[in-house]
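Notes from the 1:1 (GR / supervisor)

We went over the backlog. Supervisor wanted to see one worked example end to end before approving the batch request, so GR pasted a single chain during the call. The sequence is below; no edits were made to it. Supervisor asked that the structure be written out right there so they could see what the output format looks like.
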Amino acid sequence: MLKAPALEARARAISKELRCLVCQNESIDESNADLAHDLRVLLRQRLMAGDTDQQAIDFIVKRYGDFVLLKPPVEPATYFLWFGPPAVLIVGAVGALLFVRRRNRVRAEPAPLSAQERQRIDVLLREPN
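Structure output shown during the call:
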């Protein structure tokens, strides 16, 4: 922890935006992993050296890549991450809609029998086994 409360508050806020590379679903602020601890120390060193919040984040991203961000930027490399889940949801909804429509068409009332078909059925029903 830093002695300056304002600097510590900045470090904690930034720590909540960075992903623990070991845990992957936790921020470095929440994680107890050794790497998360090292990233918290590195972040505080950068802030004590006079970096702005964005400079400190950029330094860590440059070193570990965009994956270290809990909210990665929207860019061509992350399009699948941002737009993949909604696309899968839309494709699934369209598929379900088509399935239901096709099933309802198959369940439609059959066409009435023609006079010739009725005669044939009557003949078949009168015949003994």
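Supervisor's comment: Residues 114 and 120 are 10 Å apart (CA to CA).
Batch request approved.
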